[in-house]
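Subject: for your reference before the review

Hello V.,

The reviewers asked for a structural picture of the protein, and I figured it would be easier to keep everything in one thread rather than splitting it across files. Below is the amino acid sequence we used in the manuscript, unchanged from the supplementary table.
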Amino acid sequence: MDHLVQFSTGAASAEVAWRVVAEHGAGNVTLLTADTLVEDEDNWRFARQVVDALGCEWVRLADGRTPMQAGRDLRCVPSDRMAVCSRILKRELLHRYQAEHYDPASTIVYLGYDWTEMHRVEAAAKHWAPWTVKCPLTQPPYLFKQQILDLFRERGIEPPRLYGYGFSHANCGGACARGGQAQWSLLLQVNPLTLRAFRERIERQPSMFDADDWGACGCLMEPSE
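And here is what came back from the structure prediction:
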């Protein structure tokens, strides 16, 4: 039996990986990560330490686009109502890889939903069919997020720094398109976009920006009726 953990590089999915390896052995477990290219760099430090401690295989997949690039290609802005980023850069990517390399009849897929998210667990079972889905965090010991963070510290692995900033999850560098106002307010506090950061972002991902978009001066224009 193959055991595939959907490893987001966050604490919850890392705890799932820890439990699955403890039950089935590192040689039977593979961690699958869909890289959106915008994860905080400290997530990768955490992920590598977790993988090194567990000793299991780790497969890192990438579509090659960021969430905003995927949205641009589909002519929309990723949001909670149009989460094209999670669909294209995560779910579809992972589904294709699984279909190419594994057999649903002999594979179990593990997700990071916990005991407070039973409605998501039920929906996931239908969404992932015909794959068998399990969510170990819905079983004892029932842990809150802070307890999971403390548990990793006891293991000698510091959790991703985004949790320390106050984010409830560590997805997409704290800029998840599905986040609410509290998330974006916090992001503004901890990561304001300075001109230097803007320059570095252009240098890293020049295709995200329209070199012909100069805007327009409207200082002397009458307001439209």
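For the response letter, the relevant points are probably these. The first helix runs from residue 11 to 24. The two ends are 67 Å apart (CA to CA).

Happy to draft the paragraph if you're swamped.

O.
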